[in-house]
Structures are given as structure tokens and as C-alpha cells.
Amino acid sequence: MRWSIIRLIWHRELRDQLRDRRTLFMIAVLPLLLYPVLGVAVLQFAFGFAERPSTIGIISEKGDLDFPRRQPDGAGRSPLPWLAWLGTTSHALDSWVGAAALAEAGHRQWDYPPLIRAGRFGTFGDLSPLDQLQLAIVQAKLKIVWEPAADALAQRKVDLILSDSGEFFVRLARVDAGFARPRPGIRIDARRNDDYSKQAQQRLRPLLEHWNSELRRVRLARKGLDAQFIDPFEIDEPTAAHQTPESIFDLVVRIFPFMLVLWSLAGALYPAVDVCAGEKERGTMETLLITPAGREEIVLGKFLTIWVFSAASALLNLFSMGITTWQFSAHLPQGSVPLAALFWCVILSLPLSALFSAVSLAIGAYARSSKEGQYYLMPLFLVTMPLIFLTLAPGVELNPFYSLVPVTGVALLMQRLMTATALDQVPWLYFVPVLAPIGLYSWLALRWAIDQFQREEVLFREAERVDVRLWVRHLLRDKEPTPTAAQAFFCFGMILGLRWLTLGLGQHLSIPVYTSINLLAFVAAPVLFMTLLLNTQPRASLALRWPTWRELMVAAVLALLLLPPFAALAVTVFSRFEHLTKLLEERQPLMQSLRALIDAKDLRLEEVLPYLLAFALLPAVCEELAFRGFLLTGLRKRFRPRTAVLLCSFLFALFHMNVFQFLPTFFLGVVLGLLTLRSKSLLPAMFFHLLYNAVLLLSVPVRRYLELDQLLALGPYVSGVSLALALGILWWLYRKPYVEVARAQQKNLG
């Protein structure tokens, strides 16, 4: 590849996109204007709603400015203050003043206070200055209307109507005396599903709670009890004092990654459609293809263009959100967003934009028109939205499981980095499991896009009319000798769909029985059915040819050589992430069964045989028939052998639906694919699969009879030698088929 050609195509595409005013508006103008305008509008609406006073209608007697009304006037009052007044023996002025002060203090101590006194909501109890200030602010936002009309609530003249059950304080006194009377009550009438009524209830609730606490205090005082009598114990929470309430920064930490993902995807969609389907509509695709530029150089130039616009869209939105949040956070008491948080958002938005750009380019290359391209790219939103919404769920945080999930891992890592205040708080170990899958998926999408550009039937595809009956008749009458790539993808979709639909079935069965039924019914059966129905050469379709003994020995040696380094890698990961074992046992029933086998004291052979059948023999047969048989044979019709092996390995790892096993399964899929290509037979891959799983399972009961300390001491040396030998054999397998092809071509030319 020539960088000068890639740069030339890249700059050409950039100029074409920058000439489009719609693109400039969507990428640059809209993000810079959207968030400030929305921020001002939302803030004005929020302040207007919050500052509007709530109107409370009070049902009471005319002229009485207390609620609940005292009927009679002495209801709810204690006689003790009056007795203290009359009990004075001296007629001196200072004695009368002291008696009056004592009587007033007694009324405050032993009289039940009303909620509203002299037309104003009262303040009850010994409150702190902060609580008094908060109650004063609430009281200022409550407007009282006495004796509102019957339809005042429906006519929106009041937001709430307060009424009592009648004889409130009389009933309260009877309850205090122990009479079996219904308790007094306060009725609150409001409009259903009305925001102003809800706001009025929220403002009134703290006043009612304080009033209720004051009534409780007076009742206990009349009984000669302290207010702490009803609290039998104390709750000591040392950490509660250090916990701060959720601030605007906590909200930004969740919202920023969500918006960045959406805008990275949105910024890639329109350029991807225009540089592919748009060129087909304008008739400039043919001119580009006849230039000296190679197809890979064309794809990379277009990819860089889409990447620039996707990243620019995300970063400009980030800049606008950051400026808006910083500007309005100055008017709020919760604080502001630090620059370090925005820096980490910039760093992680670049690989995310690369992923969306590569996938959009690969899908957009197949579209025949811009309208068709929009239809093809829209499902990306359906796939991305659940992955990003997962980060907003409570309890979802960055861990080894979520770090390997695409999009979700990036967003969760972004949240962690935004809250890191020092370098020692940065989760450096999560960068590899988060960014490695992103890089792998981007590379696969680019390879897919390059393959699309190398196929003339894709670049110059005409309008298609679908007739299902003719298509089915052609499919069954004109059968292919071996499966096509379309049949391979359809078979994988069927297997994956059946696996997903049956996840909740058969939970009452044992793990070996459940796994065996799934493999036979939902993996092997669809493959055999499609092979017999659609192909005329079933043995060639499944690569069922007897290999040489040498090829079987190579498979066996490879299986034994790869076990030590993989086991050492697993031990290292589990020792570094101690909670990973528990997490795997919770999500994988097989891990629970293996834990039971390890902990068993008397383990017999018949207890291990079902596991060998379900997790060694049947996977080796069923999964190899599907992936290295039907799928790899079909993929090789469209893709080069190396690309077909990598794509088949990716589907094989995706089939297992386990992010922890994705990379090891992908690597083992590459090994199995190379064995199949080298021998032109499925049996070496089956033998490798069987031997690898069987030795792994048998190591569980055998480990108690071995001296593990000595083996672990030699582990690094054994793993290093085994890995070096295995890589040498794999390089030979990787080169051997191409050497044979080159020799055959030279022989034909000679």
C-alpha cells in the first residue's frame, strides 16, 4: 500500500464532504448551537417551574385563620399552663410577669399546635438554622386560599385542597385518653398526573412531617416521656457523614459517554453513505476504480474520511456539552466538570469512532443508493442502543466481564476515567481488554470493506426484484456441490438464533444432559439438514476425508503443546483478578460443576464420563461439523483462505457467547481452521478439539494425585518451550497451503 495514494484519496473525499453544506451543518454548526440553546431553554423552564408558587386551598370556617380549627376553643390545649397562672400567690408585677412567661412556655410545651396559625404555616420544634432556612423558603412558595370554590381544583385555581376529618383536636385527645376512636386525619385532594399538584405535594410534605413530629413530641411530654423514648436504638453510620449527595458531575459522568457514543455513530453514518452509495449515484465510482489506486488504498482513504467526520462530530459535541455544563454549573451549587474528565473522553472517543467508521463503510459499500444505504445502516442503532443503555443501569460498573463487551466497555472505562482525580486511580489494566476487542472488530470490518470493494457484483449491483417462489425453486433444483458463503452465514444465523431461543429451556436437566441436547439438536442437526437439502456433495461440503496419520499426529501434538501456555495464562488472570472466578461460577454452570468435581473427596470414573461426553466428544464432533465443516467450506468460496479462517474463527468465538473466552476461543478457532486447510479434512480438527477438551477435563480429577508444587515451579519453562514449538508448527501450517498453491501455479506455467 502507498501512503501517498491513500492520502490523495483521503483529501479528495474530505474536500467533497466539506463542500456539502448539510454535512457542515450536522457536523460543526448543530453541535455548537444545540447544547447552549437547549441548556438555556431547559434552565428557563426549570427555573420558571421551580419559582412558581403553589396554591393550597384550605377548607375551614370563615374568619378562622387556624387549621385544623379548634372546636371548641380549648381543644388540644393543656390545663397545666392555666393552673400555673392561677397558682401565683403574689400580686406584685414581677410575679405576674413571671407567671405569664411560665404559662406561655407551658403552652408551647404541652399544647397541640395547628398546622396553620394566624394564616401562616407554622415552624415546629427545635430546628437547626439550615432546616429553618429551608422551611422558610418552602413556606414562601406556598400560597394559602381559604374556602376555595368546589371546582377550584378542576379549574386549576388551586393546586391542592387541605381538609380535616372534623373535630381534629377532640379526636386526638380521645385517642390520648385511650378511647377506641378513629384517629384524626388530614385529607389532601390533588389533580391526577399534574406536575403542579405533584410539586405542591413535595413542598407541603416537609411541613406535614415537622408538624407530625411536633404532635408526637407533645403527646410524649404529656405522658412524662422524652422524645427519644420511641427510638430504642441508634444507627451508627461512620461513612454516611463522608458521602456527598449526587451532584451535577455524577450526572455528567453518565450522560457524556452516552452522548459521545451516539454522536460517534451518527457522525459516521452520513459520510459512509455518501462516499459509497453517493458515488455510485453520481457515477464517479467507475472513475475512481480505473485509477492506479488499489482497492485497499481506496478503502483506507474513505475510511480515514469517515473517521475524521465521526471523531469531529463526537469531539465538537463534547466541546459544546463541556462548555454548556461548565457555564451553567457556575449558577448551581453542585460544582463543575474538570478538564481531566474531558481529556479522557477525547482519548477514548477516537477508537470508538474508528469502529463505527469501519463498520459503516463495510455496510455502506453494499448499498446501491443513498436511500438504500440509510436502510442498511439503521440497524446499527438497534445494536448500539442496548449496549450503551446498559451503562445507565444501576449497579453496572467496569469489571472484567463488561470490559470485553464492545461499546459498553468503552463507555464504562470512560466513566471510571472521568472520576479519577490522580494517576494512581486510573484503571490502566482495563485498557487492554477494552481497546483490544475494538481494534479487532475495526480490523475485521475493514477487511470486510476491502472484500466488498474487490467484488464487481457489489460495486455495480443493479436493482433487484425478489420472487420468493422462484428463489426457492432455484435453490432446490439447481443445487451447488458445496455450500456458498450466503448459505454459511445463514447457517450460522440459524445456529445462533436457536442457541439464543433455547437459553431458558431445560434448566431442570443436569449440565451434561442439557449441553448434549443443545449440541445435537441445535448445532449438528441444522448443519446436516442444510447439507443434505442444499448440496449435492455432502462429504465435500463437510470436509469429511480421511487424513494421513501424520496429520493426526500434528493435531495431537499441537493440542498437548497449547495446553500449558493457556493454563498458565488462565492461572495468571485468575490470580490477578480474584473475583473473576466467582463471577465465572455465577454465569457459567460448567464452572459450578467443575468446582463440585474438584471439591469431591471420592471421585469415581463414572462421574467423569458424562462430562467427557458432553464437553469433549460432542463439541469436537458437532461444533467442527458446523464451523470447520459447513461454514469454512462456504466462506472459502468467497474469501481467501486466510480471511475465511479468521472470519470462521470470529464466528466460532461469537457462538460461545462468553466474553471471557472470546480471545482464547478465537485463537483456537484459527488453529483448527489451519489444521483443516492443511489436511483438507475435518478429522484432524475434531481430534485436536477432542484431545484438548478431554485433557483439560481429566486434569481436574488427576490433579490431586500429582505433586502440584513441583509442576508449578516448572510451569514457566514448560509453557515457554511449549508455546515456541506450537508457534513453529502453526507457522508451518500457515505457510504450507500457499506453498502448494504456488508450486501448482509454477507447474502449470511451465
Tell me about this structure.
The protein has helices spanning 3-18, 21-51, 80-86, 93-110, 129-140, 168-176, 195-222, 248-282, 285-289, 295-329, 339-364, 370-377, 379-389, 400-403, 408-419, 431-453, 456-459, 468-477, 485-501, 511-534, 538-541, 549-576, 579-587, 589-599, 605-635, 641-655, 662-679, 683-702, 708-749, and strands at residues 54-58, 116-117, 120-121, 142-146, 160-164, 186-190. It is mainly alpha-helical. It has a domain at 52-77 and 112-231. The protein has a 4-stranded mixed sheet with strand order 4-1-5-6. The mean pLDDT is 77.
Highlighted features:
750 residues; mainly alpha; four-stranded mixed beta sheet; two-stranded antiparallel sheet; 6 strands
Task: Give a short overview.
The chain is mainly alpha-helical and 750 residues long.
**Total number of beta strands:** 6
Distance between the termini: 30 Å
| Range of strand content | under 5%
Major sheet attributes? 4 strands, mixed
Q: How would you describe the shape?
A: elongated
- Going by helix content, strand content and strand pairing, the class is mainly alpha
Helix content estimate: 55-70%
From the alpha carbons, calculate the radius of gyration and give it in angstroms: 38 Å
Query: Mean pLDDT score, rounded?
Result: 77
Please tally the helical runs, counting DSSP H or I stretches of 4 or more residues: 29
Strand order of the largest sheet: 4-1-5-6
Any low-confidence stretches, pLDDT <50, length ≥5? Answer: none
